[in-house]
Amino acid sequence: MVHSYSAAQQKKLIVFDTTLRDGEQSPGCSLNLEEKVVVAKQLSLLGVDVLEAGFPICSIGDFEAVKRIATEVAPSMEGREKIGKPMIIAGLARAVPADIKRCAEALEPAPLKRIHIVLATSDIHLQHKLKISRDECVKRAVESIQLAKTLCDDIEFSPEDAGRSDEEFLSFILGKCIEAGATTINVPDTVGYNTPEEYGRRVKYLIDRTPGSDKVVWSTHCHNDLGLATANTLSGIQNGARQVEVTINGIGERAGNTALEETVMAIHTHPTYYPVFHTINTKQLCSSSRLVSSLTGSAVQSNKAIVGHNAFLHESGIHQDGILKNKSTYEIITPETVGANEVSLILGKHSGRNAFRQRCKELGFASISDQALQKAFTDFKALCDRKKSVNDSDILAILAC
Ligand code: KIV
Ligand code: ZN
């Protein structure tokens, strides 16, 4: 396998963020409508290519959130000059007509939209969950893609539990999905079972064997049950995937999904090692992380790669000595690259509204409305009167109210 690619050989990596769908499925991570809109705006600034905004049939709240994001956030080009287009807004649907129609309805206002259809393909799921044969599975997949295609050009198909599905059957059904009009084929390791070699080999097998595979974008979707989600995703890229499905801070079902920040920075720090380049605004990574953490209430572990509190701290004497002499001795990424150093102003009771707005921006609330800012500023001043020092956690708590 080649491990050095020239710029001309590299393809753009499509970053599909599912923080608001798979991420929001984490225990205790649910977000209200306003919070979802705030996160979606930040993800647009971050440079996400495809935003999975929700699962419209699953609740009125999800439907409304997808629709609002499709209306208010989808057209935005702010900070996306390098990318040259707004985010594609995706909604999830099971392979049933009601889901697909509801999804299309919610996505309708978005300039660029995608229906994402999921149907399990592993024998375990077919026998025990869906109680259908492989033939019925193929029929449902094809018919649902054909229906979705009448409502939207951009269709993604996800064979749920692909990581444990029979490869020959997987290749057969995916060939039929491509023939029916799917434009992206995802390879979900739904239960986080695969190892990097296994997952990469599976992606390669499918790309090599599936009829029409050159007409679609292949995508990774890895869960972190064995702590291998990022490694599996990178292995998928080395083996032909050109889209990655990820979440901020790696939040998601059980042990979570692949972390966006880890995948992007692995590629960023190895600019010729992967057959892809990314267009993420890396300086927005830490503020995106803080925003998602504060709104979901899901704390980021302090030693978390890229966005953890300790990610750029040096404690031991030997390391500190090295850093003082030359940062490259112990830093493979500068804090500035990921926006980890953005604490520019110390805030207290004498601070003004502009400084407060700037801090909100640094904490990930770049798109806060004037009205919400005014309320937060008033609460901040009141807190300054009661507390000697007001820190970022206090401000985040105010902003999350
Ligand atoms: O893990 C999974 O299989 C999913 C699908 C909807 C892609 O989240
Ligand atoms: Zn998933």
UniProtKB/TrEMBL annotation:
Pathway: Amino-acid biosynthesis; L-leucine biosynthesis; L-leucine from 3-methyl-2-oxobutanoate: step 1/4. One of its GO terms (biological process) is L-leucine biosynthetic process. It comes from the Eukaryota. Its EC number is 2.3.3.13. Keywords: Amino-acid biosynthesis, Branched-chain amino acid biosynthesis, Leucine biosynthesis, Transferase. Residues 13-286 form the Pyruvate carboxyltransferase domain. Pfam families: HCS_D2, HMGL-like. GO terms for molecular function: 2-isopropylmalate synthase activity; methylthioalkylmalate synthase activity. Belongs to the alpha-IPM synthase/homocitrate synthase family. NCBIfam families: PRK00915.1-3. This is 2-isopropylmalate synthase. It comes from Umbelopsis ramanniana AG.
